[in-house]
Design goal:
Shape: globular
Number of helices: 6
Distance between the termini: 33 Å
Order of helices and strands: HEEHHHHEH
Bound molecules: zinc ion
Structural class: alpha+beta
Length: 152
């Protein structure tokens, strides 16, 4: 199984991040709980960042048949792994090569493997971005977390 994957959120998704839709104190609690549960280490590579040991990333599942975007869980990632997750953003910041290098390193891939993989990921993103998605945040709702469902 691939350890580190790229997770591009379709451009048509109702939500791309939890942080913008909950109270700041709620996000801070979720972020801390996620980091603490992971021992302040990246859940994928075990690494830590210099300024922030770990960052909080939302793992989404996309049901391509029902067109449902479901929040699976929050995960603690080092800044390098987090950058790979949002590869499109990394590219905009001039960090594409660095992100690809980290992706290859963590997965034990060659640079060509990483390039081929990201091509498939971007094709899937383009296909998913042609549809509207229904949001499923049951994983947070069962914890009693309230949302402000405004599109950002
Ligand atoms: Zn990492």
């Amino acid at each position: 199984m691939t350890r580190l994957t790229v997770e591009l959120v379709p451009s048509t998704c109702w939500w791309s991040n939890v942080r913008s839709h909950v109270a700041p104190a709620v996000w801070e609690r979720l972020r801390r709980a996620t980091a603490t549960a992971a021992g302040n280490r990246c859940e994928i590579c075990g690494g830590r960042g210099r300024r922030h040991p770990v960052e909080c990333h939302e793992v989404w599942d996309y049901d391509d048949a029902r067109l449902v975007q479901r929040l699976v869980r929050l995960i603690a990632l080092c800044p390098s792994c987090h950058e790979v997750k949002h590869l499109g953003l990394a590219a905009k910041r001039g960090r594409h090569a660095a992100a690809l290098a980290h992706l290859a390193k963590v997965n034990g891939w060659t640079a060509a493997d990483a390039e081929a993989y990201t091509e498939v990921v971007f094709e899937q993103w383009a296909a998913r971005s042609r549809h509207d998605w229904t949001l499923d945040c049951t994983v947070l709702e069962v914890q009693g977390i309230r949302f402000d469902p405004t599109r950002t």
